[in-house]
Amino acid sequence: MNEYEQQAKDFLKKTNTTFKAEFVKHGKHFQDDKDTRDIYKATFTRGERSFFVMFGQSINASAKYRYLNYVSNDFKELKKETRNYTLTLSQVHVNKNFKEPTAYDVLACLQKYDVGTFKDFCDEFGYNSDSIKAHKTYKLVCEEYKNACMLWNEQELDLLREVQ
Q: Is the pTM here over 0.85, yes or no?
């Protein structure tokens, strides 16, 4: 376990928070994605409170198995998807870079600061303030921050901000 993974593990332990990543599908995660990736439902739980984010894994670490144009994280599912073909193990490429997201992967991407107004958000992150897509992104970022504030207090968010 590297130092970053340890930071995330320590943060979860200090805040009595659990993390779970569930594979949802292999597809396009972001609106402008040209390539597909593994998409997970990443859930943080603390007592009775919890929230989840949809997390798009890096393309390089996605799809455990590949065959022609088919990709899958489950060999049985890959066989089902390729049922019209004779599938042999020698034809299946196993992605050596495959990995499920860790708590660190998701925590490092969470919105940990209030982004302010829509104008502030656009100025800070280089979005066009006339863009409907930018406004949709702004709303999602605000919701993510609101969820983080619901689960962790300000001192705990300060600790989270140190997870790099």
A: no
